[in-house]
Amino acid sequence: MEADRPAAQPALASPAPAASKPGKGRALSSLAWRQELVKLTIVAVVGLVAGQLFSHVLAGFTVAIVVYLANQMRHLRHLRLWLMAPKHYQLPEPSGIWGEVFEALQVLDKRNRKRKKKLAEIVAEFQASTAALPDGAVVLGEHGEILWFNRAAQSLLGLRSSQDVGIRIANLIRHPNFTDYIAGDSYSGEVEVPSPINRNIALALRIIPYGNNQRLMIVRDISEVRRLEHARRDFVSNASHELRTPLTVLRGYLDMLEPDTRDGKGLAAWRMPVTEMRNQAVRMESLINDMLKLARLEADGYDHRLDVLDIPSMLARTVEEAKAMSKGQHRFEVNIQPQLFLCGREIEAQSILSNLVTNAVRYTPPGGVIRVNWWGDAEGAHFSVVDSGIGIEAADIPRLTERFYRVDVGRSRASGGTGLGLSIVKHALERHDGRLRIDSELGAGSTFRCDFPPHRVDGHEALPVSGNIVH
Ligand code: ADP
Q1: What would the CATH number be for the domain defined by 225-298?
Q2: What is the pTM of this model?
Q3: N- to C-terminal Cα separation, the chain
Q4: Is 185 left (phi over 0), alpha (psi -120 to 50) or beta?
Q5: Are 279 and 251 in contact (CB under 8 A)?
Q6: CA of 292 to the centre of ligand 1 (A)
Q7: What's the pLDDT tens digit per position in 428-470?
Q8: How far, in Å, from the CA of 410 to the mean position of ligand 1?
Q9: Partner of 36 for a Cys bridge, out of 75, 97, 106, 165, CB 3.0 to 4.6 A?
Q10: Domains in the chain: boundaries
Q11: For a pLDDT cut of 90, what percent of the chain falls above it?
Q12: Which residues pair with 191 in a beta bridge?
């Protein structure tokens, strides 16, 4: 019997120490059981003796047992009342086994209450600290319903404490970016939306799944970051515009002076400086043009109009220009799939083609081979430029699309580079949902490949399902 109820045993003596001294608790418990058995035996014997006196042994025994059971029922009633309202009902302190049970239950109840209080304190502390966070935090339930949010979420999303708990977050933030993000279930990265209460506030939302189908949504105010980015873009764009006019004037005069110095009509001493000034002016002009191109690509005003681009013709022209630039020093192998058109913007697509093809010419020593490919398959359309040039070290490859990043600054400048070409390619590709892949080995040539998804291909339903050509 003792083995049936080990949990209650430690609590018989003074509650707290008893819990840590199971040996003592067990001794007292067995004593209580023995007392209870003795009590039951005495009651039965008294019943039997009384029955004997009145010549009704069985009746006497039955009455005694009924009295004993009634006493047990009384204790059970106390227990039931206490269980229903442990805080408000005072349990009696009977001796014996019931005393032990009542005491053990009260100790358990006290311990639970302490634990609950501690947990409540931790939760309150957590809520107080998250409430003070500058970022908004919203706890979402299984179906995206709001369970809890902090003060910052209140001011950033306009949530109201009483009304909005239980409402689905997708009903409050109705921006298409967020609708797609929450429906996606993968929650990779962040999504940017304007605040539902003030369109001038830009918010970055991130959902982090945790626990049992719950999700934590972090809301960051990124208006300041966006404002600074805007200011930087405007500055670059305005400065480039402003510089362009005086530079055009300077270049015009330098162009006029150069034939004079070349023909020997002007001052011989000016020949070199004028040519150098003119070269530098041309370099500044290409820098400004590239900076303007980048600023335009980054500009917020997204032009949604798309044209059908005849990439085969554009590529053929680009290769002709590259051949002129190469002056016959390179061998060109061109493999263009006819009638494979792209939906996009011509100026941007032209930047992609020209930058990659001219880079191949500039970074491939004379005698090298340049292969230009344009083909379509089930994954979309692909453009690749493969050269047998100087190649790039693996460590430099991830940084090539950074602005002004050049592996060899001298070589880049000498061949008229601005260090912005691949940045332009990357941005222009992003605006066409494309991706740039660079494979290269130092001294063994490079492959620059652009992949465009099927939805960007004009008439993509006609793309072959299999049988890809590998370039
Ligand atoms: P740049 O005007 O300097 O060419 P890009 O942004 O076009 O600027 O290219 C960045 C750098 O990447 C170049 O300076 C060069 O070091 C390297 N690079 C680009 N294309 C090639 C290539 N085909 N072969 C080797 N290096 C290349």
Answers
A1: 1.10.287
A2: 0.63
A3: 82
A4: left
A5: no
A6: 19
A7: 999 999 999 999 999 999 999 999 999 999 876 666 654 444 4
A8: 12
A9: 97
A10: 6-128, 133-221, 225-298, 307-462
A11: 53
A12: 205
